[in-house]
Amino acid sequence: MGNGALSSSRSSSNRGSQRKLVENLRRNNFVTKDRAISALLAVDRADFAPTHPYDDTPQYIGYGATISAPHMHAIALEHLADVIGDGSHVLDIGSGSGYLSACFAKLVGPRGKVVGVDHIEELVNTSIVNVRKQNADLLSSGRLHLFVADGRLGWPTAAPYQAIHVGAASEKLPRTLVDQLAPGGRMVIPVGAYNQQFLQIDKMPNGDIVRRNLADVKYVPLTAKSLQMNGETA
């Protein structure tokens, strides 16, 4: 769903290939961890972004939604890779094009489960088509599930999650999502109405929450379907 981009990011063209894009992200230190890099290389953005897939900018995908800039996907994977292992459960809220959900599915292994939710049915249907282009096995194996749902409610059925990614900005940290995070788990989420921060939320084994600001960002709001479709922000 997100318009995800760093608030100070500059548009840069990376036309050519997924590998060149990832090399650029690595060179600029948006991603350094081998597992995160491997996931990015394994899922071609061209299957998910209708135009200019290798530009490091958000791209409009319809219905008031965008696919986030590649550097934001890289940052999310970089900071969640450490808590995602074989058999992990991951929740991707505002899954949009399905790109990041597919990347997460590469990380969880055959015993893991990734749930992507978006409240726009047309986007979910398109995301399934996108994933099937080169990664149909992620869906057929049950490793990746893409559902139509209100992301503000999470997806309690598959909770608790070792990792949660939220692709739209919440004015406050949503307690509902924190409750679905496993002890020792981590969530990355843009928080704020105007001056937004991309926060890393770690849930300690005793349930305490530790926050860390990863970046200042600009995201569309985590809102109701009707408001998103009408281009409203409340």
UniProtKB/TrEMBL annotation:
Describe the family membership recorded for this protein in Swiss-Prot or TrEMBL: Belongs to the methyltransferase superfamily. L-isoaspartyl/D-aspartyl protein methyltransferase family.
Give start-end of the signal peptide. Answer: none
Q: Which species does this protein come from?
A: Meloidogyne javanica
EC number(s) given by UniProt: 2.1.1.77
- Domain of life, source organism: Eukaryota
Where found in the cell? Cytoplasm
Where is there biased composition of kind Low complexity? Answer: 7-16
Is-annotated flag, keyword Methyltransferase?
yes
According to the entry, what is the taxonomic lineage of the organism? Eukaryota, Metazoa, Ecdysozoa, Nematoda, Chromadorea
- Keyword annotations from UniProtKB, A to Z: Cytoplasm, Methyltransferase, S-adenosyl-L-methionine, Transferase
GO molecular function annotations of the record = protein-L-isoaspartate (D-aspartate) O-methyltransferase activity
Q: Name one GO biological process term.
A: methylation
Please state what the protein is called: Protein-L-isoaspartate(D-aspartate) O-methyltransferase
